[in-house]
Specification:
seven-stranded mixed sheet; about 250 residues; single chain; mainly beta; five-stranded antiparallel sheet; globular
């Protein structure tokens, strides 16, 4: 497999294949045209559905930047098939910068999370925003609360049952979800205004669980994302941070 480069100096991407045991890293080596990696597969009769994950670690400079991806299936020195695709990096990314302890939430006590928003492109984003959603679920009967996963199938929305604030213009401001009965009714929105080209910004968010949460809820998750549209772009750029899970006390 070969992943083409977009610009000199771009960081090494990550390549993973999905196996029965989970995602497995594929080692990459660099050349003047990009990066290459090799992995083995067993082809059963009738074909095989495979999954690869490419993480570029480099944002686009202009609208439409893509990483070309070429896959060659070979049996020894004999080429069986070739395929071509591309990966479009997101111009905006959102990374969790810091989590204030404790990871276990006490009801009625503020817990703060800091995210870093990065605009990787040479274009400004005039109306970028960070959005967040909270979900809760019970811990599984056989799972310890610490480190358990609150999966989508078990999770129910609780955004409107928490007190949430974000730090803007030197002070904490309340963040409220729109009470409009739509799918966005459980989505908090924090307008960032303009994100200049090749810039970054920290976003501080704090929240407190209230007595409105169900007594059986033992786990709380927060999922945050950043999005915005560059002038002239056909699509919005979307960056999603890994979900955070807390134990509710």
């Amino acid at each position: 497999m070969h992943i083409g480069g977009v610009r000199d100096g771009d960081p090494l991407p990550e390549l993973e294949e999905r196996t029965d045991a989970g995602w497995k890293d594929i080692a990459l080596t660099g050349d003047k045209d990009g990066w290459s990696g090799t992995f083995r597969v067993t082809l059963p009769k009738g074909g095989l559905l495979g999954f690869l994950d490419v993480t570029p670690h480099a944002g686009p400079r202009v609208e439409g930047d893509e990483l070309p991806v070429d896959v060659t299936l070979a049996d020894g020195a004999r080429t069986l098939a070739r395929g071509h695709g591309s990966v479009r990096p997101a111009a905006l990314s959102l990374d969790r910068a810091a989590v204030r302890e404790p990871a276990a939430l006490g009801r009625g006590r503020w817990t703060e999370v800091t995210y870093t928003v990065v605009n990787h492109s040479r274009s400004a984003y005039p109306q970028a925003q960070v959005q967040g959603e909270f979900g809760a679920c019970e811990a599984g009967p056989d799972d310890p609360v610490e480190g358990a996963i609150c999966s989508g199938s078990r999770r129910h929305a609780v955004t409107t049952r928490l007190s949430t604030q974000w730090y803007d213009d030197g002070r904490w401001k309340d963040v409220s979800a729109p009470d409009d009965g739509t799918a966005l009714a459980e989505t908090l929105t924090m307008p960032l205004g303009e994100l200049p080209a090749e810039s970054w910004r920290k976003v501080r968010l704090r929240f407190a669980a209230s007595g409105e949460l169900d007594s059986g809820d033992r786990l709380l998750t927060i999922t945050a994302r950043v999005n915005g549209r560059a002038p002239g772009a056909s699509d919005r750029s979307l960056g999603i941070a890994p979900p955070l899970t807390y134990a509710l006390r």
